[in-house]
Amino acid sequence: MLLEMEYINIYFNNLHYISPFLDSGVFKERCEREIWAFSALKRLRRNQMHFLALYNAVLAVGALTAPTDALESSRSELGAPWEENHSLHSQKVVPSSIRLSKLYFQRARRLIGDVFEICSLEGAQALLLLSIWCHHALRPHASYMYSGMAVRTAFAIGITSTNRSQPEESQVASARTWWCIYCHEIKITCSSGRESSMSAPSKYRFPTPLSDVSVPNILVKVLTRAQVFSSTTNSSSCEPSQTSIIPAQVSLSAIHRSASRNIYSSEANYEQLPQSARQLDEELTVWKATLPRWLNPDVVSYKEPEWVGKQKLALQIGFHHIRAFIYRPFLSLPSTTVDFDHSVSICLLEARATTKILHSAFTHRHYVRSWWYNATHILYASTILLQVILLDSPSILLTAGCGKADLIEDVNRSLEILRSMDQMVVAIRYADLLRDILEVVGQSHINHQSFRTEGLPARDVSPNINKENPMECQGAGAAEIRGNVSRSLQATAQFQPPQNCILSRDDVLANLVNHNPLGHFETRSDEMMFGASEGWNVAGNVFSDFNFAGENNDASLWDWEHN
Question: Which among 144, 239, 151 has a CA at the least distance from the CA of 517?
Answer without folding.
Answer: 144
